[in-house]
Structures are given as structure tokens and as C-alpha cells.
Amino acid sequence: MADRAKQRGVVLVVSLIMLVVLTLLVVAAVNMSTTNLHIVRNMQSKMDARDAAEQVINQVVSNVNNFTMSSASTSAPDSGNHTVDGYQVTVQQPVCISATPARGWEQQYSINPTAGTRYNDNWSVTAQVTGVVTNSETSTVTQGVEVQQMLTGCP
User: What is the distance between the alpha carbons of residues 144 and 57, in angstroms, rounded to a whole number?
Assistant: First the structure.
């Protein structure tokens, strides 16, 4: 009987300790899921920013007037600031990296044989993206493009 009297409060103490441990595990799980949500939101934001930059770069690349001698010496028609899906996208002036004569092209098959040699110009187009709403950090996206022209656009 004496042993039973000593053990009367032990069950209560053990159950309270188990309850505290279980509560700590639940709080840790909630904190982990909240952290994971923040990570996913940041990744989604970066992907959206990259997509906005690629959309504007594709607009620049699709216009051959951005890759001519006159646009290289002044400013390309599509360079500058654009807003896409809440992101401020700034496209820098396309930069010509190299120009080489096009292979497999002969003057005799040209519509205008006096036009000269065709060139493959390699250009680099860079866009910087900033979130308009959050004013988050700036990301940079660079894409290369090869343009075939009668006269090289490289200065």
C-alpha cells in the first residue's frame, strides 16, 4: 500500500511531459511547413521574374531592326524599360560579340548578287528584372542570338 501512495502522481507527471513533447513536435512541424511555403513562394517569384525577362528578350530578338548597324550605334527600337506582370524589365542595348561569313551561301543564288556576302552575327541581349510591387532584388537574364544579314551589324 505504501508503494502505491508514492506512485499516485507519477502518471500525471509522465502524461504532462508527453503532452509537452507532443506540443513541441506539432509547433516544429508547423514552423517547417511555414518555412517551406516561404521557400516555394520565393522560387515562384524568381521563376516569374525570369519568365518576364525572357518574354521581353524574345520581343527584342524577334525584331531584326534591333540588330542592324544603325541600331547598334544608337539604340535598338525595343531596348529600354518594359513592365510585364508586375515586373520592371530593363533591356540593355544588344551587344555584337562576333561576325563571321555565312557558310553554305553563295552570291550566285542571291536575288541581288551585288549585295555581297551574308554574315552570321552573334549578339548578346541582357535584361534586368525588378519586382514593381515588392521592389525585390534585381535578377539578370542574358540570351545569345545569331542573326544572318547581308551586311554585318557588328560595328
Answer: 10
